[in-house]
Structure formats: structure tokens, C-alpha cells
């Protein structure tokens, strides 16, 4: 069940097929698994033992993927870290995971090198494209560690929008189930498929590298999200699949280049990780056609809870949902006693499958709370209709309670985004002495557009109950976001305290 062994089998079948392209460099599958085996052998020579953690704090590059396979070859557990994190944030993850080794890239090396002397467990930090990294490739290749399905493969640290991030432990079984679910629900894959990476490999894009690697697909790695580079890749490759966070997909469809993209080269764009507003989704469908798949998941159940299939994007009412439970996945909506609520009523989304994490690293209290009763409690509020379509409302911590009534910010955000001059909006609650909380909307106007608060009021009054209407509108140049593009509502709430 070791993923590295399965990828090595792919290389045996198609040794000359392209595995990874980064810039002008392409490695065949034979070269890719050989490099991974040599790095794995070097890590073993340095004394790392099966189960040890290895942090990958790296910018997007082909080496990230070969290091994934190298670590699994040696029986090690990878801890990918977003390259945009501050060195202090990386230090917390290195320390919390007890990592013995770390890898980084030239653009991050100066900030992260001091970690070797700051974190007791960290014995070595190697930067790619240096003589140190080249020496690893000169070591003898090692055999694949004969690990079981439940061995740790990946510790996924949450984005930490509130408090310190926690490390969700994902096994080889979890990641293999995620891949099988991809084949069942999204696409059949083979060596003709191209996975284009424009988002951080430490997150959703890198996770879905796995179903492509396991079927012999070609990984094409870009340094970041660049619309011109995407346009160029679509001219060079066909059968392209890429990940887009909602903010990325919105930028793409509003770009002047959108109308000239070679969309026939696109097989699938999967999106998720935050609310995708209906107005932007309709525009994306007009440009890309039936090539969109919505993902609902989280690090604790990687990419695999519910999904809105390409064919389900045809029904206008279903665009407001995140689809149905993925193949092999159970999804329920429950009250605070973990009892199912009736169809249409709002409760917490819980899920159960072989994709569900083992728990949080070194945090038994948080693990017991999240996995109570054998179900993963997502912290997301949603409702499910009679057909099994799940509609997300908000994170439970973002719900506004005003005058005893529950108000779900996303519902208001959807309405405000219908205004042609509004680019982005985020709705939060502000303390009120009589009502408990009142609704405040932070609005980003489109360039050169003027937005009248009275027009926003009228839009709300035409579409939602009066008590849900924002009591004030705060116009800002940009919304604060974390490194995964999620809006930091905690920061917006903090602004209102000053």
C-alpha cells in the first residue's frame, strides 16, 4: 500500500513517458523514480528512520514531487508547508511535527536556514539546486519501504485562520482512497493527461498530483498563478487539468486574456477551498463550458467530502450547492447532539470515509473533539435537501446571531455580488449592545467603479429579509487573506474593535 511502490510500478510500465516538467527540464518516469530512490537512500544514510517527519517548505518546483516519492520510498512522512508562510510560522510547524529534516528552495533558504539551530529535533536542512542537493542524487538508490496502509504519509497543517494550525495525519490509505475517489467521480486518467500546477503544491494542487502520478500522467509545474503562463501552457499541452481556488478562478475569468484562452486544451478545472459565488461561476461556465468540478473537502479529509460534477453544473439551482457525497463517503448534517436534522435545516456537516484523517498530530484533545462518535466534525454549517445535495452556509464560527436569529454571511455576500460594481465582499458580525451582533459588509469595488450603499441596500431588500441587511458598508481596497486565498474574517472583526 506504499504509494511510492505504486508509482515505481508506473515507471516500470512506461519508463520513457514524461513524468515531471519544470521549465525547460523534463524527467521521464524512469529518471523520476531513480532520483527519488537515490534521495531516499541518502536520507536513510543520514539516519532517518521509518515514521520520521520531513518538512517540505518549498516554492513550486519539480523537486517537490520527487521529494514526496523519495520520502515515501524511505518510509518517511512528509510535512508540506506553504511557501508564503513567515519563517516563524514555519518554525512552529517544524517544531510541532518534530521533523528531523527539511527541504527548501533558493528563494526561501536565507529565512529558513536558522531553523537548524533553533529547533532541537531538526538535524539538516537542504536547499534544492545546490551542491548539497546534488550530492543526495549521487547516493545509491534504496528499495521501497514495505510499509502498511495505515503508516503516516502526509501531515497537513491547517491554514490557521484562528489560533495555531494543527497537523492532520493522513495515511497512505487516506491518500489512495482520495485518488480512487478522483477516478470514480471526476475523471478517468492515463498517460495522455497533463496536470498543470499553478497553485501551491503543498496544498490542493499537490494532493491531486497523486491520482495523476498513479496513472502515469504528466506533471507540469509553474512557479505560481500567472495567467499568461497558463495561456502558454494551454497552447503547448492538451488534456490539461488544473486546480483553482475561487479567488484564482475569479481572476482568470475576469482577465482580458480569458476570451482568447485555448479552452479546448482543458479537460477539467477543479475548484474549491472557499465560497464560489454564483455570478462568477456562471461567467466561468460561459468561458470554459462543462469542464468545472467543484470540490468540498478539508485537510482532515483531503479534497474528498462532496462534489458538484461537471454535469451537475447544468442545473441553475444546483450551482448554489457543493453537490453530493463523493463515492464511498458518508455525509450527514447534525445538530449539537449529533442527531440528523430534517432536510433543508441547518446544522454541522459531518463525514465518514477512508479519507478521514487519523487525528491531529500530538493533540489528543483536538482529535477526540473532531472525531467524536467516529465521524469527522468539519465545523462547517450546511443543509442537505431531499436529493442529498449539500449547501454550505458558513463556518460555525462565522455565523452571526442578531436578535436571537441566525444570519449566514454567505447568503448576504451572494446577494451583494450581484451588483455590477462589486468585485469582492465579506460579511461579518459586529457586537451590538441590544441585538448581540449586527451585520457589517466589507466591500471591494471593481477598478474605476463607484458603488452606492443605497443601491446595495436596495439589492438586499429585494432579495433577503430586512433583518439580514448590513447595517453598514465598509469600502476597502482589498480583503485580508491567508496564504491559501481564504478571507481572514477574524482580521475584519479585529478592525472593527479599533
Automatic annotation (TrEMBL):
EC category: ligase
Record field: catalytic activity: 3-(methylsulfanyl)propanoate + ATP + CoA = 3-(methylsulfanyl)propanoyl-CoA + AMP + diphosphate
Keywords, ordered alphabetically: Ligase
Transmembrane segments: none
AMP-binding enzyme C-terminal domain boundaries: 411-486
PROSITE patterns linked to this entry: AMP_BINDING
A GO molecular-function descriptor: ligase activity, forming carbon-sulfur bonds
InterPro entries hit by this protein: AMP-bd_C (IPR025110), AMP-bd_C_sf (IPR045851), AMP-binding_CS (IPR020845), AMP-dep_synth/lig_dom (IPR000873), ANL_N_sf (IPR042099), ATP-dep_AMP-bd_enzyme (IPR050237)
One Pfam family here: AMP-binding
Top-rank taxon, per record: Bacteria
Family: Belongs to the ATP-dependent AMP-binding enzyme family.
Enzyme Commission no: 6.2.1.44
Domain AMP-dependent synthetase/ligase: start-end pairs: 8-361
Protein name: 3-methylmercaptopropionyl-CoA ligase
Amino acid at each position: 500500500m506504499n504509494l511510492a511502490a505504486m508509482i515505481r510500478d508506473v515507471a516500470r510500465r512506461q519508463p520513457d513517458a514524461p513524468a515531471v516538467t519544470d521549465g525547460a527540464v523534463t524527467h521521464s518516469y524512469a529518471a523520476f523514480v531513480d532520483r527519488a530512490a537515490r534521495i531516499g537512500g541518502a536520507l536513510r544514510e543520514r539516519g532517518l528512520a521509518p515514521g520520521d517527519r520531513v518538512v517540505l517548505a518549498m516554492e513550486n518546483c519539480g523537486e517537490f514531487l520527487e521529494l514526496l516519492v523519495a520520502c515515501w520510498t524511505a518510509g518517511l512522512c512528509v510535512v508540506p508547508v506553504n511557501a508564503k508562510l513567515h519563517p516563524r510560522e514555519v518554525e512552529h510547524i517544524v517544531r510541532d511535527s518534530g521533523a528531523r529534516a527539511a527541504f527548501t528552495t533558493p528563494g526561501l533558504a536565507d529565512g529558513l536556514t536558522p531553523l537548524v539551530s533553533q529547533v532541537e529535533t531538526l538535524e539538516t536542512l537542504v536547499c534544492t539546486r545546490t551542491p548539497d542537493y546534488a550530492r543526495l542524487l549521487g547516493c545509491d538508490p534504496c528499495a521501497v519501504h514495505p510499509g502498511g496502509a495505515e503508516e503516516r504519509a502526509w501531515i497537513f497543517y491547517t491554514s490557521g485562520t484562528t489560533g495555531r494550525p494543527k497537523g492532520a495525519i493522513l495515511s497512505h490509505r487516506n491518500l489512495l482512497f482520495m485518488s480512487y475517489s478522483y477516478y470514480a467521480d471526476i475523471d478517468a486518467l492515463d498517460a495522455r493527461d497533463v496536470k498543470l500546477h499553478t497553485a501551491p503544491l503543498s496544498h490542493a494542487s499537490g494532493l491531486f498530483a497523486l491520482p495523476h502520478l498513479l496513472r502515469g500522467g504528466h506533471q507540469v509545474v509553474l512557479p505560481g498563478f500567472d495567467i499568461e503562463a497558463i495561456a502558454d501552457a494551454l497552447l503547448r499541452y492538451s488534456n490539461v487539468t488544473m486546480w483553482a481556488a475561487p479567488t484564482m478562478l475569479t481572476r482568470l475569468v475576469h482577465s482580458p486574456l480569458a476570451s482568447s484562452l485555448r479552452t479546448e486544451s482543458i479537460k477539467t478545472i477543479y475548484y474549491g477551498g472557499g465560497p464560489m459565488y454564483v455570478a462568477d461561476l456562471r461567467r466561468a461556465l460561459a468561458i470554459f463550458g462543462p469542464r468545472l468540478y467543484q470540490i468540498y473537502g478539508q485537510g482532515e479529509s483531503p479534497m474528498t467530502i462532496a462534489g458538484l460534477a461537471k454535469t451537475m453544473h447544468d442545473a441553475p439551482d444546483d450551482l448554489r450547492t457543493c453537490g453530493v457525497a463523493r463515492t464511498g463517503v458518508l455525509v450527514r448534517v447534525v445538530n449539537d447532539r449529533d442527531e440528523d436534522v430534517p432536510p433543508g435545516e441547518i446544522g454541522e456537516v459531518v463525514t465518514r470515509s477512508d479519507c478521514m484523517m487519523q487525528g491531529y498530530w500530538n493533540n489528543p484533545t483536538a482529535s477526540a473533539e473532531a472525531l467524536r462518535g467516529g465521524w469527522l466534525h468539519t465545523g462547517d454549517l450546511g443543509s442537505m435537501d431531499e436529493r442529498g445535495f449539500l449547501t454550505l452556509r458558513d463556518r460555525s464560527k462565522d455565523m452571526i446571531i442578531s436578535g436571537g436569529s441566525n444570519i449566514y454571511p454567505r447568503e448576504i455576500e451572494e446577494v451583494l455580488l450581484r451588483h455590477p460594481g462589486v468585485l469582492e465582499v465579506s460579511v461579518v458580525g459586529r457586537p451590538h449592545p441590544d441585538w448581540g451582533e449586527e451585520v457589517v459588509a466589507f466591500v471591494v469595488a471593481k477598478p474605476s467603479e463607484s458603488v452606492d450603499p443605497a443601491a446595495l441596500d436596495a439589492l438586499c431588500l429585494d432579495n433577503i429579509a430586512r433583518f439580514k441587511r448590513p447595517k453598514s458598508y465598509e469600502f476597502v481596497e482589498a480583503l485580508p487573506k491567508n496564504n491559501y486565498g481564504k478571507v481572514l474574517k477574524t482580521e475584519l472583526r479585529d478592525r472593527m474593535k479599533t
